[in-house]
């Protein structure tokens, strides 16, 4: 990415916030990677060592966003909906891993699958479905 001077940083962040308003959580992609806390887009020319702190940055994008948008630059409702989806998705993956481990009794396995299916129904009611996860249980 091209590094920007101070005069263009505000304009860049404003453009990312505007792009965030166009993100529809139903067709958004979410990504996580390490970033500088004070410069999540990596656009500053330099960061003083005393201000350097790496965090896990959460980003979203959609076909209309023209690139990734830092979660903090998203509207509250969009950020909350995407966070909810990520939380449910991570829970589903944990359930899949437990079921696939083979360490469960048949009753425990059935309980985990019912829990998984309940989470899927919640997501189907509000979001796009995650069919590939269902296949992992077989």
Describe this structure in words.
This protein has 138 residues and is of the alpha+beta class. It folds into two domains: 1-74, no CATH class; 75-138. The protein is built from four helices and three strands, in the order H-E-E-E-H-H-H. The chain has helices at residues 6-21, 76-100, 106-126, 131-136, and strands at 29-36, 54-61, 69-70. A three-stranded antiparallel β-sheet has the order 1-2-3. A hairpin with a 7-residue loop joins strand 2 (54-61) and strand 3. Helix 2 (76-100) runs antiparallel to helix 3. The longest helix is centred in the middle third of the chain and has 25 residues, at 76-100. Mean pLDDT is 81; it is low at 129-136.
Structural class: alpha+beta
pLDDT averaged residue by residue: 81
The outline comes out as: elongated
Spatial ordering of strands, largest sheet? 1-2-3
Tags for this model:
alpha+beta; elongated; 4 helices; 138 residues; three-stranded antiparallel beta sheet; 2 domains; single chain
């Amino acid at each position: 990415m091209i590094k920007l001077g101070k005069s263009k940083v505000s304009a860049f962040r404003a453009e990312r916030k505007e792009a965030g308003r166009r993100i529809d959580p139903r067709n958004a992609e979410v990504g996580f990677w390490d970033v500088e806390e004070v410069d999540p887009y990596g656009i500053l020319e330099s960061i003083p060592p005393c201000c350097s702190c790496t965090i896990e940055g959460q980003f979203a994008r959609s076909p209309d966003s023209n690139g990734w948008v830092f979660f903090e630059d998203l509207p509250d409702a969009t950020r909350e909906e995407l966070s909810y989806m990520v939380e449910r998705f991570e829970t589903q993956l944990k359930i899949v891993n437990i079921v696939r481990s083979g360490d469960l009794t048949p009753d425990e396995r059935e309980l985990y699958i019912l829990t998984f299916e309940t989470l899927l129904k919640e997501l189907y009611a509000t979001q796009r479905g995650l069919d590939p996860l269902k296949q992992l249980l077989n």
